[in-house]
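User: Can you help me understand a structure? I only have the sequence.
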Amino acid sequence: MKYLRLTSTDPYYNLAVEEFLFRHTEEDFFLLWQNEPTVVIGKNQNAYAEEHGIHVCRRITGGGAVYHDLGNINYSVISSNASSLNYACFAAPILEAVSSLGLPCALNGRNDLEIGGRKFSGNAQYTVGGRTLHHGTLLFDTELSRMSEVLRVDKEKLAYKAVKSASARVVNLSELLDPSQALEEFMNHLEQYILANTGATCACPPVDERIERLRARNASPEWIFSDKRYLTEYSIARKKKYPFGLVSLDINMEKDQIRALRITGDFFGSLPIEELERCFIGHRLGDLPPIDPSPYISGMSSSELRALLLTQ
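Assistant: Let's start by predicting it. Here is the structure, written out as tokens:
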């Protein structure tokens, strides 16, 4: 495994480096990096307009929107030797490194790292061609009030978790550590722990014209905001929060047939959601095809998707 610590705080560049290493190399990598204030949305989420003077980025993994600033640390694990959606395996080095500072932490739910029931890290994964990208945030000294303002968490998601606000269930690690512990010291601790316990060796940032092309794509409005599945009007809308994530259906009907279907949410999946959407085009709601949605929406059964489509 190679260890790489990015010094850039440009979110479009950092996500480009991560994707380049994932798609165009064969080695395993562990990355630490930080971004300027940024909202990063999942591949299946709707993008909303920039506000508060921060960047908006779209990543290639699923899950919900996350907020980055210079009080937050990001980590990435890229591997060809681990199964996808095995969050415990990928998050283990982080959990161990944080626990070694006297903070007992654990993976909770599908993708959150928590201390005493309060979240300090959200994680996401993407697998293609036997290669997995796992990445997560680490709240160290993030502006939680600003994070709450810009993320606009779906009320249904909060209702499912039975909490009043997103900020009520998150915590900065700096609140739990010795006040003298600075972010740079914490990053150095993570680095030393990874190098000592994973067998990783230090690497230099790659230089490749494909990274610049990925960065340009990441920063383009077409990538961030445009969605080929977008429809200006929908005749039917469905939404429900499940243990595996929030699923929203926007259905355009022509007479009694589905003319277009758009599925969004903060769920995870190993196959493109567009493939699942196309399976229902031309069918009547009362005569839906028997399709297993779990490769597209991990954890969802055909009966659950059918019930959501038929909800009145």
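Now, to help you interpret it: The CA atoms of residues 64 and 110 lie 12 Å apart. The chain has nine helices and 14 strands. Let me know which part you'd like to focus on.
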